[in-house]
Specification:
Order of helices and strands: EHEHEHEHHEHHEHEEH
Number of helices: 9
Strand content: 5-15%
Distance between the termini: 36 Å
Low-confidence stretches: none
Number of strands: 8
Strand order of the largest sheet: 1-2-3-4-5-6
Structural class: alpha/beta
Shape: globular
């Protein structure tokens, strides 16, 4: 997850591959949990953390993307986190929840209070047989009715350190229930709006996957989803007297100065 301003580094593929999916970068069986690969990955992450820790725009390092749940995973997380904390005590560190947010929210809750460790939970509703049975409207209803409670509980357990590191507006083709492009976009729009609403209220942050891809795809490509008005064109930026304050360097500098003074005055 990269940008020109703030950056979160994410180890997407580890030695021995941490899951059986193609995005782990290798073919063959999962061998990440062999001792040599666990140690090698810890070494890689320590090198990354040493390089990234001094950089002011780095706001986190994720240890591993979507690892398989395994009896050795929690122990490896603990030793790796502790190793990095010896030289990067304040760098935010993210851990993939291995599709078990309850288990790893509880894990984070047991870390020291001063330790900035965050649970990364991914939400998709397009891959399973159950996903295919529901329309976009029905998925939106289920999200509001059931995911809200789940995220509230997980956020509480992890002391608020919960982010939605991956989600999209993608639905299974069978969930779109129509060949009409306008109706398909409406289904995606209702679904995405429900996701945004729930995530904003019950998580500390979120990342849409992905920013762009080859070919038109209004479910997975944020730029296409914005063009189709499935995702909002702007989010989190307020306009003042019809002028985008983020593009006004003078106002931004003044606002930064005033905020800094207010911060100093408060803590003074």
């Amino acid at each position: 997850m990269m940008s020109s301003t703030n950056t979160i580094a994410d180890l997407h593929a580890a030695p021995g591959k941490q899951n059986s999916d193609a995005h782990s970068g290798q073919t063959g069986p999962v061998r990440f949990f062999e001792s040599k690969n666990l140690k090698h990955t810890t070494h890689i992450l320590k090198v990354l953390a040493r390089a990234l820790n001094p950089l002011p725009n780095v706001v986190g390092l994720q240890l591993l993307n979507e690892p398989q749940d395994h009896e050795l995973l929690e122990g490896w997380y603990t030793t790796t986190l502790d190793s990095i904390r010896r030289f990067a005590p304040t760098l935010p560190l993210y851990i993939g929840d291995a599709w078990d947010s309850r288990k790893f929210s509880a894990f984070v809750s047991k870390r020291p209070d001063v330790d900035f460790t965050v649970v990364d939970h991914h939400v998709y509703r397009c891959f399973t047989a159950q996903d295919r049975q529901l329309s976009g409207d029905e998925h939106a209803q289920v999200l509001r009715a059931h995911l809200t409670g789940k995220l509230t509980a997980r956020s509480s357990e992890s002391q608020g350190n919960l982010v939605l590191g991956e989600w999209s507006a993608a639905l299974n083709p069978l969930s779109l229930r129509s060949r009409d492009a306008g109706e398909q976009d409406r289904q995606r729009r209702v679904f995405a709006q429900a996701e945004l609403e729930v995530f904003e209220q019950h998580a500390s942050g979120w990342f849409f996957w992905t920013y762009k891809k080859d070919g038109w795809d209004a479910g997975w490509c944020l730029r296409d989803a914005m063009r189709a008005e499935i995702m909002p064109a702007t989010y989190g930026i307020r306009r003042e007297t019809g002028k985008d304050i983020m593009n006004d360097e003078g106002r931004r500098a003044k606002a930064k100065e005033e905020a800094f003074k207010a911060h100093c005055a408060y803590w003074g």
